[in-house]
Design goal:
- There is one protein chain.
- By secondary structure, this protein is an alpha/beta fold.
- Strands 3, 5, 6, 10, 11, 18 and 19 form a seven-stranded mixed sheet that branches.
- The model has no long low-confidence stretch (mean pLDDT 96).
- Strand 1 and strand 2 form a beta hairpin.
- The protein is globular and about 60 Å long.
- It has helices at residues 40-46, 100-103, 152-170, 188-199, 215-222, 235-242, 255-260, 287-296, 309-325, 327-333, 343-348; strands at residues 2-7, 12-17, 28-38, 60-61, 65-73, 85-88, 91-92, 116-118, 122-123, 130-134, 138-141, 180-184, 203-208, 226-229, 245-250, 265-273, 300-303, 334-338, 354-358.
- The longest helix is centred in the middle third of the chain and has 19 residues, at 152-170.
- Helix 3 (152-170) packs across helix 9 (309-325).
- The chain starts with a strand and ends in a 5-residue tail after the last strand.
- The protein binds beta-D-glucopyranose and zinc ion.
- Beta-D-glucopyranose (BGC) is lined by residues 39, 41, 64, 90, 117, 120, 153-154, 157, 305-306.
């Protein structure tokens, strides 16, 4: 069967033939891949800046944002049956006996760095027709969400960030009042983050470089949130024009914006960083004021990556809520669907917001 893989040593992204998986272990599940979402991480991998093939292989099968259908289950599989829709988690635990997060089922908090990620780091991904996976790493999604369920994986990133933010607020010794949230970035993660904030009752502003007339801006307004373009409003002026925020959710990976995020924070506010800047990125920061504020205003800044089962369940609940509140806006996040053989081109040229590969799509 065909798959899309990156060959880092040959600087090539191509279709290749791989054997169909077999049901091996007793807790194994055989899956028919339905859809795979493409994101910035896939673009970085396919421009050879990120990503690692499995040990001993010269290529990495791409794809980590999956939606698949169960076709066959091993003897001891209890939670899934043929016909179920599932999303596979991305990370797999490291092998070290003393890594408490990995041993406790939360490789997203791995302390050794020896975890693998399907389609990203040391393990093949889902951009093919059939895959095998252990039951442990699969999360069932209701069929009612089928048309948008490929968004679950990217949504887990912001669901985890938002749940952590909420636990910081609930940890305060007083009831917080009505809250204001700022999202930095209007890519799929930023827009999903805006949906989470709106659904949670935040007055929400999205700040990004796209123009006020862009599809992204329109989508933000369709949620009942406000859109501010960075091209006409530098971050320094955002505070005067839009006020301060209890929560800032960063989803760009642009270092100056990441370090500047606390400038627009209210006292006791929280910044959640999800973007991954290049290692060589630099940014100027007025350290004095930033650090003073951090202390004198009880501010919290935290980073968050990947997600555990709990965050997947949270993402699924959020998606159900979105489909009640603003179904059309959710559908409009997926701007392009393509066939497997169109992936190399699609990775070179991002179109619109979320690009999705549909495995059954006819030529
Ligand atoms: C994925 C995460 C992953 C991260 C870092 C993101 O695109 O959604 O699951 O942990 O990249 O590799
Ligand atoms: Zn991704």
């Amino acid at each position: 069967m065909q798959a899309i893989a990156v060959f880092p040593s040959q600087k090539r992204v191509d279709l290749l033939d791989i054997p169909e998986p077999q049901l091996n272990g007793r807790t194994d599940v055989l899956l028919k891949v339905r859809e795979v979402g493409l994101c910035g991480t896939d673009r970085e991998i396919s421009s050879f800046e990120y990503g690692t093939p499995p040990r001993g292989s010269d290529h990495l099968v791409l794809g980590h944002e999956s939606l698949a259908e169960v076709v066959e289950v091993g003897r001891e599989v209890r939670s899934l049956k043929p016909g179920d829709l599932v999303v596979a988690m991305v990370r797999r635990p490291c092998p070290h006996p003393d890594c408490r997060p990995c041993r406790g089922g939360r490789p997203d908090f791995c302390v050794t760095g020896d975890y693998t990620e399907r389609g990203i780091k040391g393990a093949d991904g889902f951009l093919t027709y059939y895959v095998g996976e252990d039951e442990t790493y699969l999360v069932r999604v209701p069929h009612a969400l089928a048309e948008v369920a490929v968004l679950v994986e990217p949504l887990t990133v912001v669901a985890k960030a938002s749940d952590r933010t909420q636990s910081i607020f609930y940890g305060l010794p007083f009831e917080p009042g009505p809250q204001r949230g700022l999202v930095l970035g209007a890519g799929p993660i930023g827009l999903l983050g805006a949906m989470v904030l709106v659904a949670d009752g935040f007055e929400t502003v999205v700040y990004s470089r796209d123009s006020e007339q862009s599809k992204q801006a329109e989508l933000v307004r369709s949620l009942g949130a406000h859109y501010v373009s960075s091209t006409s409003n530098p971050l320094e002026s955002l505070r005067e024009s839009s006020g301060e925020f209890d929560v800032v959710l960063e989803a760009v990976g642009f270092a100056p914006l990441m370090v500047g995020a606390t400038q627009v924070l209210k006292p006791n506010g929280v910044v959640a960083l999800t973007g991954v800047p290049p290692e060589t990125a630099t940014a100027e920061l007025k350290v004095g004021r930033g650090l003073r504020n951090l202390v004198l205003r009880n501010e919290v800044v935290f980073g968050t990556v990947n997600a555990g089962r709990r965050d997947h369940l949270s993402a699924i609940h959020h998606l159900e809520q979105f489909m009640v509140l603003f179904p059309q806006s959710v559908r409009e996040l997926i701007t392009h669907r393509a066939r497997l053989d169109e992936v190399p081109q699609m990775l070179k040229q991002k179109q619109g917001i979320k690009n999705v590969v549909e495995m059954d799509r006819a030529a």
